[in-house]
Amino acid sequence: MKKGVMRPGHVQIRVLDLEEARKHYVDLLGLVEMDSDTQGRVYLKGWTEVDKFSVVLVEADQPGMDFMGFKCLDEQTLDQLHQSLIAFGVEVEEVPAGELKDCGRRLRFQAPTGHYFELFATKEQTGRYGVGNHNPEAWPRDLKGMKAQRFDHCLLYGPNLDETYDLFREVLGFDLCEQVMTPDGKRVAQFLTTSMKAHDIAFIDHPEAGRFHHASFYLETWEDVLRAGDLISMTDTSIDIGPTRHGITHGQTIYFFDPSGNRNEVFCGGDYFYPDHEPITWDADKLGKAIFYHDRQLNERFLTALT
Length: 307
Description:
alpha/beta; metal-binding; 9-stranded mixed sheet; oxidoreductase; 307 residues; 35% strand; repeat; 19% helix; 8-stranded mixed sheet; Xdiol_ring_cleave_dOase_1/2; globular
C-alpha cells in the first residue's frame, strides 16, 4: 500500500534582501531559478527535482520559515487527509490553487511545535533541469556553485514534541527513524521519514515555538561537500561547522548561513530506512557525538542561532 504523504514538496523561506538571497541560493548553493510571481516571490529547485519548484524565497522584515509543504499521492488522498486532520483536532486552512504559482490547492495547518505545514497533491512538473526524462545525460553542464540536487529536509526547534510526533505518525503516516532520549524517558529530538530516507523532517525540543534551524540540500559525494566548503570560504559566506559527519543518520555535512541569517546544510550519504527498522536511540548526554560525530561536542551557535 502506498503512503498518502510521499515526500517533502517545498519550503518558503523569509529573507531580508531578495537580491542578496537570490545570489546566495542560485550562485552559491546552485539551485535553479524557475519563476517569480506578482507578490515578488522567487521560485527555485534542485536540478534533479521533477516538480517546478521546491524553494520559495519571500522578502520580509524577519528571517525564518513560513511553512514547509509535503506532496501527497493524489487529490483524493488530500481529501482523506483533510478529514483525518480535522478528526485529530487540527485546524486546517484551505489555500486555493494558484496562490503558489503553478501549484494546486493546499491544506495548511500548525503543528504543536508552532510550525506551519502544508499538504498538496498537484504541482506543475517541469522534469529534471537540463536533462529531461528521455535518454537523459548525467548532469546539466550549466550548473552553478554547489550544484544542489534537491531540497531534502528541514530541522525545526519547538515545544510539544510528543504531540507533534502523534500528529506525524498517526495522521500523516511518518515513521520514526532516530530519537534522542533523556534518562527519564523524554524524547528531546525526533527524526521522521515518509520515505526510505534517513529523515524528511526533524524536530528538537526547544521552549520557543516555531523556530527554524535549517533547510537541507542533497549533494552527490563527499568530494562535493568538501568543494562546498571551498566555495563557502571563497565567497566569505558565514560558516557554522564542518565539513564533518553526523552520528545521527551518518550523513556527511557542512552548515552555513544565508545573508539573512537562515542556516543551510548541504550533505551527502546518510542511512536508509524501511518500515520494519527499529528506531535508533541516542542518549541525551551523547548528543554532541550524535550531531557532530568527529568533534563529539555541539558549538553554542548550532544550538542558539535560530530564525
